[in-house]
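Handout, tutorial session.
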Amino acid sequence: MSLFKKPFSFDEQVSATFAASLVTSPAVGAYLGAMYGDSLVIALASAIALLDIFFIMVAVPESLPEARHPEVHHVSKLSWEKADPFVVSSLTNAMPDKV
């Protein structure tokens, strides 16, 4: 057993950052709410959410393989049977490779 530990992996860093944000975000929100009011907290949270969406749209690559992309010109009709999440047959029709 080595006395030195390997450097943190990317997964460990992401997990640690996520855990730290779960602990600190409510405290920061409570502090800002007490100092400046709830409107600032709501505006700040909304701005961060919009920045997250923008980042995902710009920086995150498409993960769906080309073979699975839907055809642009093919428009399927949506029926209530296909939209009902409790109907098992609609799930087998929607995802035949998973059943």
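The second record follows below. Compare its token runs with those of the first.
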Amino acid sequence: MNSNLLMLPLAALAVVAMGGAASAQMAPYYDPTTVPAIPDTNNTVFVTGTATEKVEPDRVMATFAVETMDEAAGDALRANSEAMNAVLATLEEAGVEENETHTAYFSIYPTYNYTEFGAQELTGYTVTNSITVESSNLSNVSDWIDAAVNAGANRVDSLSFTLAEDRLDDIRGGLTQDAIDNARGKADALAQALDVEITGVKSASLFDFNSPPVMPLSVSFAAGAAESIATPITPGEQTVTATAGVVYRIG
């Protein structure tokens, strides 16, 4: 019998044995006393509390704009300035104080026509000037809109009812305590259901307040197109919401 053929299986067996020995030598060893303990989170509960309040707004913000177009930039600007000066004067006559208005946006930009071959042809210029009225006089908003449009404003870009900062701060103070009380009530009910007791507070956080939203409004008119019928505007009520998250210890 050929001795070389007998040596091949023996050699293969030796390689396998050596590989197994190497694996055994490389196997990691863990000392149970050195493994870090898993943090104990079973002795806490997390709940959120919410508090809301409906309030009537005490501030109004309205933005009026005049947009004019002409072949020459100077002519478009001149027409726009005349119309905006008329709008400002009319609003002042309607009861808007001088310190209640400010410029919101102003621009002059060219306008083009595009041919079927992609070329552009300058057709003129567009001038836009917008002002914002911010006031605590909510009862005259309808009159201001009608007066501004009749005087030359051809856009009402936005209208919103909000709360003054000092009043909003007072509301937030009350809602914070109410939200925490609401969270504690939920935690007590949960603890009773689990047959445990609340032993303390581990952490707490107050989420952002949901302030009264801004009502977007974008309306365009032909200059002087408003009719004599008053524009109906109703502020309604706004909802302010606070949410608190609290982690309670239980035992």
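Points raised in discussion: The chain has a mean pLDDT of 81.
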